[in-house]
Design brief:
354 residues; single chain; 13% strand; alpha/beta
């Protein structure tokens, strides 16, 4: 049952921020844009460094947190890759992922589709199997413990070349039955989607779904390329689509899901502040936007932190948040029957709240 007091349906948009916050925290939801390496908390960084006898350039957890100040995507990526260096064993990847699932379950996330960056690790001599099997083990454990289902998405690093991406796809072949799709992340500007058109086509031929980061720092043209050249099934970020009315029309007509990351957008200076976040505008235009945490250890919050930040602006109402929760399931890679069950759970929750 919902903890907030009943509110007449005609007044769903008029509850206080406090009540709205309680409501959105309890909503069943899916997370579709989570970089598992980006859930590495400073405490974990130190724990894994001690476990693996690795020196790190920080004297304390506080010093790490102080370093989490970014002016753009590349500033973030520099420390992100530095932090990933402490991940060495299957146990590390298992523990990293399970810690995320514990937090996600507490936020009423019932399904998650998580990104991982194998090239970040294979370049350091870590076998693909160590990474994949560690993550898959945690995914199975999360489903057993919390009933939280998940899917795994392999991301290519766009600052590396096509040949490296093809080698990664080849290395992943034994796990194709346990990997839902491929994605594209890392430095966006200067690395257009067209660079990876052939490897995405190969992934599609292998039966993998396709997603890509586009329109975060890159221009709307990158979104067009992701749609037309990569043949994506879902768009990660996509904020800058709003600069192109024709693109917005296409995304709306095709019901293309956008995996938007509000706190990340603010921390990376994609938007000025939360009051200027375009989420409300996206919903007004009919875009299938969703709320996600991106790299929560670095950007100041997990899924419910992002929902709370949006609620605190006072610019979205209950109807909007129900739409966002529904969108998260509609945009997932779950079978229709499972999506229908989750949508029914959302409807039951809303009914219980009055």
């Amino acid at each position: 049952m919902c903890a907030c007091p009943p509110i007449e349906s005609s007044n769903l948009g008029n509850c206080s921020v406090t009540d709205l916050t309680t409501f959105v925290e309890g909503l069943p939801k899916a997370e579709l844009h989570l970089h598992i390496e980006g859930s590495l908390e400073p405490e974990q960084m130190f724990a894994f460094a001690r476990r693996n006898a690795i020196d790190i350039p920080f004297a304390s957890v506080e010093e790490v947190r102080a370093a989490y100040s970014f002016s753009n995507l590349q500033d973030f990526l520099d420390i992100y890759y530095q932090g990933a260096n402490v991940l060495r064993t299957q146990e590390d990847f298992h523990d990293l992922a399970l810690a995320y699932f514990v937090r996600a379950a507490a936020d009423n996330v019932v399904h998650a589709e998580i990104f991982f960056d194998p090239q970040t690790h294979t370049a350091r001599g870590i076998p693909f199997a160590v990474v994949a099997d560690g993550l898959l083990g945690a995914m199975a454990e999360a489903e057993t413990r919390y009933g939280l289902t998940s899917r795994l998405i392999l991301c290519f690093l766009r600052h590396l070349d096509e040949e490296d991406a093809f080698a990664t796809l080849k290395a992943a072949e034994p796990w194709f039955d346990r990997i839902a799709g491929v994605g594209l992340d890392s430095s966006e500007v200067g690395h257009p989607p067209e660079k990876f058109a052939r490897v995405f086509a190969a992934a599609g031929d292998a039966g993998l779904l396709r997603v890509a980061h586009a329109g975060e720092e890159g221009p709307p043209a990158y979104i067009w390329e992701a749609l037309d050249l990569l043949k994506i099934d879902r768009l990660d970020h996509g904020n800058r689509a709003l600069e192109d009315p024709l693109l917005v029309t296409r995304l709306t007509r095709e019901a293309m899901t956008l995996t938007v990351c509000p706190l990340s957008n603010v921390r990376l200076c994609v938007v000025e502040d939360m009051d200027h976040h375009p989420m409300g505008r996206m919903l007004e235009l009919g875009l299938r936007a969703t709320v996600n945490s991106d790299d929560p250890a670095y950007f100041g919050g997990y899924v419910n932190d992002n929902f709370r930040a949006l609620a605190a602006t006072g610019k979205l109402d209950r109807h909007d948040f129900v739409t966002l929760a529904r969108n998260s399931f509609l945009g997932s890679f779950l079978p229709d029957a499972e999506i229908a069950k989750h949508l029914a759970t959302v409807a039951a929750y809303v009914a219980d709240c009055g």
